[in-house]
Predict the structure of Putative ABC transport system ATP-binding protein.
Amino acid sequence: MTAPLLTGTGITKDYGATPALRGVDLSVAEGEIVAVTGPSGCGKSTLLHCLAGILRADHGSVVFRDQNIGMWSEAARSRLRRSEFGVLFQFGQMVPELTAAENVALPLLLAGSGRREAREAALAWLDRFGVADVADQMPGAMSGGQQQRCAVARAMVTRPRVLFADEPTGALDQLNGEQVMQAIVRAVREEGTAVVLVTHEAPVAAYADREIVLRDGAVDPTGLGVGAP
């Protein structure tokens, strides 16, 4: 049996006296889309941040390709997110002073690519997500759906092995949300990228291969996800 690409084991995280995660286990295989669902405040985003190395778990381990990244320095985890991991947030978090193409090229530039190479890759990814026509526009001139497609392109431009998507359609209307999810799924299937997808929306969770339900910082053994009675 092939070992998982990413595994979180016994992850705990407290914010002061408030427990956010209480011994969560989660594994993701190569190319698998795993949805993490549950009510607001159950620890979904905290789990994603621990798995992506944005936060360090208080206890437990996060293993990527046989390496416990929880033991790495913050700088090493940051480098990992510029190469092997892609991160997509609810509101895109585009840099407002940069054009769409410059935003998408940024991870490549930070990783040491030349400007021409980075721009060409950025334009190619913007085209894949159907927003090549806004390449030279600032985020403020774009619609919410266009901004989020650009943000997905930025998260995928390094061809990461794992994409972490935190409520990627939460700021969009239903139509734009469906279009963005279809574009994400198409791209990750073509690239073989694994996805950890945090959502509270049943239609979004339905795009996943598997669903993990959190309640009060722990995996719900009943497995009753969003939209369940």
The beta strands are 6-15, 18-28, 33-37, 59-64, 67-68, 85-88, 162-166, 194-198, 210-215, 218-219. The chain has one domain: 6-219. The longest strand covers residues 18-28. The helical segments are 44-51, 74-81, 100-110, 115-128, 144-156, 174-191, 202-205.
